[in-house]
Amino acid sequence: MCTVEKRGNLFILTITGDDEHRLSPSFIASILKALSKVKSEASPGSVLITTSHGKFFSNGFDLSWAQAAGSVSAAAERLHYMVQIFKPVVAELLSLPMPTIAAIAGHAAAAGFLLALSHDYMIMRSDRGVLYMSEVDLGLTLPDYFSALFKSKIGSSSVRRDLLLTGMKVKGESAVRMGIVESAHEGADGVMKAAVRLGEQLAERNWNGEPYAEIRKSLYPEISRLLGLPEKFFSISKL
Ligand SMILES: CCCCCCCCCCCCC/C=C/C(=O)SCCNC(=O)CCNC(=O)[C@H](O)C(C)(C)COP(=O)(O)OP(=O)(O)OC[C@H]1O[C@@H](n2cnc3c(N)ncnc32)[C@H](O)[C@@H]1OP(=O)(O)O
Predict the structure, then answer these.
(1) Distance in angstroms (rounded) separating the CA atoms of residues 130 and 235
(2) Coil, strand or helix: which one is 195?
């Protein structure tokens, strides 16, 4: 599950436990609840940092729960259900009225990678953990909003190809070189220190979160439309 802690202007959302942090219906619900809390307490200068305990940031959807349905068609239905209920998590992150940072202290695979990619900034470990889109290895197709987020967030078509069509497992330093993450640091502490440093720099700008969120949505019109995120036209709040 996850917890939310406030440290000055920083909201620290931590995915707790030493398991794979599989995105099951109950885990997805707990992330949504945490994001709703963060949004309700947002103020100018707020910043979200999402991190995790243990070896995994998140290893993607809970396929064991899907397969426990007892038949292929029932498993497909459960997988499809997770795809649907995860969409609001991505929508919440892309419309959150504050800068967001994923402090990726472990592996982020498939939907778990998408959870990290839904943040404005990603910071990884250099010594452990990979980014991995396993769908091609599993013989699963990509939901439309998965592909749209990759197209929105990762500019290089060859990097998108490597990630989505080869199932490349990308370690921290390579992820920096490929332009996927901002930086990579030794150990979970190193990642968190870097995320807090960046968060505090962003918080100092004391931005009004609503225009910030609108500008972010205007950067990613395709995924915003897919997620049903309306564009709000703003009055000039200050001239
Ligand atoms: C069902 C029918 C059809 C359905 C149709 C309807 C629906 C249609 C739409 C379908 C939806 C598709 C979208 C799906 C999304 C999902 O989320 S599905 C779930 C996907 N999840 C997965 O597939 C899980 C993938 N994860 C893995 O494969 C592994 O967990 C891992 C991430 C690769 C990690 O493997 P693991 O063996 O646990 O790794 P480690 O032991 O940690 O590391 C291995 C060795 O590597 C070393 N290492 C790790 N990181 C680093 C590093 N950065 N630098 C150096 N070394 C590193 C590590 O030390 C290990 O070394 P050793 O210790 O020596 O072994």
Answers:
(1) 43
(2) helix
- Does residue 238 have a pLDDT over 80? no
Radius of gyration over alpha carbons of the chain, in Å? 17
Exposure of 202 in the CB half-sphere (CA atoms within 13 A): 23
Instruction: Find the 7 Cα to ligand 1 centroid distance in Å.
Output: 32
ipTM, 2 dp: 0.89
222 pLDDT more than 70: yes
Which residue, judged by its Cα, is nearest atom 5 of ligand 1? 76
- Domains of the chain, by residue range, sit at 2-226
Q: What share of the chain is helix, strand, coil (3-state, %, to 5)?
A: 50, 20, 35
Residues at CB less than 6 angstroms from ligand 1: 55, 59-61, 63, 72, 75-76, 79-80, 83, 107, 109-111, 127-130, 132, 134-135, 138, 140-141, 143, 169, 171-172
**To the nearest whole number, what is the mean pLDDT of the chain?**
96
Express each pLDDT in 95-122 by its tens digit: 999 999 999 999 999 999 999 999 999 9
pLDDT in tens, 70-103: 899 999 999 999 999 999 999 999 999 999 999 9
Scan for tokens 């009004």, then name that residue: 208
Mutation test of ligand 1: which of 86, 115, 140, 146 has the most ligand atoms closer than 8 Å to its C-beta?
A: 140
Q: 2-226: which CATH topology? A: 2-enoyl-CoA Hydratase; Chain A, domain 1 (3.90.226)
